[in-house]
């Protein structure tokens, strides 16, 4: 079994490599050859400690990712989130590789939104509104700034001190943006792109605040009951996600599942758009929405990239 440690995977990953791996994974997810199996959302001995298991396979890859959330960890000097990728040896059925991927997971999640934004956002987009000021929000901003000519950033966060710290971190990462800490309405009304990176269970903004031509990416809804976007907005937007059958179960579109199943709303996989099998933005004023609930194929493809790049030996 090959083992890649957290420090090694962090050294090897980049926004560029995550983008390419995730793009391939999203295309594979929309094919008939790949499979993504229902996510398992569970809790540990103490109910506040939760973990998820997401699995999938392609003709060349099979495995799963375990992601955990331990909210009390910061008091012990540990991060709340952790992530581990397991790749299965398809000849033997044994675990062929284990990849510690907590930092990698942040790159992977941001990459999915960047792939969608490159395809759906207006290419001249300059103003980003980010809801949330946590670790993932930082990666989202960096990933989007790599592919779009961003000049302005509105940070929307409940905690002002956390928002200020986030702004400082962005500057230290070399992002040359006009950064403002804003209220939700101001941020939405000025944004070309809106990204939500929170654990919210209620909509974060009013649908009427979203101006024509905006692209929206929601990545916080990954379990039943979570919600970041106002469902009323879906009626006048073009809807995309990483995997429709998962998005309507645990993603943002769980709240309009019946309408999608009845055909009243059309939801497309972003992979189908990347392959030219459906249309994306047609008019400048189109509102586009991408829901990223996170799928195992993203982890498997990134794990494969890390293995191909690493010099780690095989363990017995």
Structure description:
The structure is a single chain. The protein has ten helices and 15 strands. By secondary structure, it is of the alpha/beta class. It has two domains: 2-104 and 297-309, ornithine cyclodeaminase, domain 1; 111-294, NAD(P)-binding Rossmann-like Domain (Rossmann fold, 3-Layer(aba) Sandwich), CATH 3.40.50. The longest helix has 19 residues, at 102-120. The protein is globular and about 55 Å long. The mean pLDDT is 95.
> What is the annotated CATH architecture of the largest domain?
3-Layer(aba) Sandwich
Profile the largest sheet: 8 strands, parallel
Shape: globular
Order of helices and strands: EHHEEEEEEHEHEHEHEEEHHEHEH
The CATH C-level name of the largest domain is: Alpha Beta
The CATH homologous superfamily of the largest domain is named NAD(P)-binding Rossmann-like Domain
- Low-confidence residue ranges: none
- Helix content bin: 25-40%
Strand tally, please? Answer: 15
Alpha carbon gyration radius: 19 Å
Q: Determine the N-to-C terminus distance.
A: 6 Å
- Mean pLDDT score: 95
Number of helices: 10
- Biggest sheet strand order reads 10-9-8-11-12-15-13-14
Beta-strand share of residues: 15-25%
Taken together, the total number of domains comes to: 2
